[in-house]
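Ticket #318: bound-state structure for NDP.
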Amino acid sequence: MMIASKSERRSVVIIGAGAAGLTAAIYAARAHLDPLVMRGPKPGGQLTTTTSVENYPGFVHGVLGPELMQYFEAQAARFGTELSYGSITEVDFSQYPFELRADNAHALIADAVIIATGATPRWLGLENERRLLGRGVSTCATCDGFFFQDQAVAVVGGGDAAMESALLLRRFASQVYVIHRRDRLRASKIMQKLALRQEKIRFIWNTQVKDVLGENEVEGILLEQIQTGETTVLPVKGMFVAIGHQPNTEIFRTWLEMDEEGYIFTHSDSTYTSVSGVFACGDAQDRIYRQAVTAAGSGCMAAIDAERWLQQEGESHE
Ligand code: NDP
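RESOLUTION: The complex was predicted; output attached.
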């Protein structure tokens, strides 16, 4: 990528404005690194699709996800962070300083880059799942559960997210089916216990969704029992897909080491990536914890790592 010499040069560019990116911004701004946050397609990150966050420390009675992210952003801005609405679409880490291009054709030169691009919910990969998205198919029970008052819905998955979705949906729906491909849940014991004891939640084990049925809205789902191959139609009005997440790291694939799923490798106990001067934090590099508080913690680490790196090594890269 060739960028004109007049490109804007920044000390630190933070890509992504979820819990990780905005925490990195707070720390970088307080270290007078004059950070620029490229907010990307989903400012606020995944917390903007939740309602009450009960496990973020400091909020005794919980806090709404979007509200919490507004606090993060306001705090980052208070210390002088510049927040841009653009998304980074292309990077070149082969030379120093690094080159980045935004979707508004804006070009940037960065002395250090902090990647905080988060993750996106995974899909089953069915054609009709995408076609009926927003018409019965959803990945966010918190956002869309309310629309399924007194209707039957299905949740696909066996992890904590699926249990959380099922527990939430039972408040609205007449019946909640959890479709899981195995006979054992991946969810934590406490979430399993909570979900399994609900009368309104019925578990359908060893089963996969083969198709989503309906012309203009979901009318049912086609299920296949994995051991017998037997297929049945389950009449539901909604299907909530809760089968994990995909890190938003595609544009870095050429440049950074990552695992087969796209989680960026960071050196142990730090946010250093395989390219010196590029740091990664939050769900883009964390496949294990994936919590708002751990994302925020790693955002803090990334800003401190970047600050120290710029101090010690940045100058020698000039
Ligand atoms: P997980 O990776 O934990 O679980 C994904 C589930 O989806 C698994 O049961 C998996 O099945 C199933 N699955 C994956 N791919 C497919 C597929 N193609 N077809 C059918 N089923 C599939 O993801 P989660 O999003 O549930 O959780 C992610 C992390 O976030 C975890 O660490 C979790 O603890 C945390 N979390 C915590 C919450 C809380 O504490 N309140 C709420 C939500 C998430 P299999 O088991 O067979 O692999």
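RESOLUTION NOTES: The chain has seven helices and 19 strands.
TICKET STATUS: resolved
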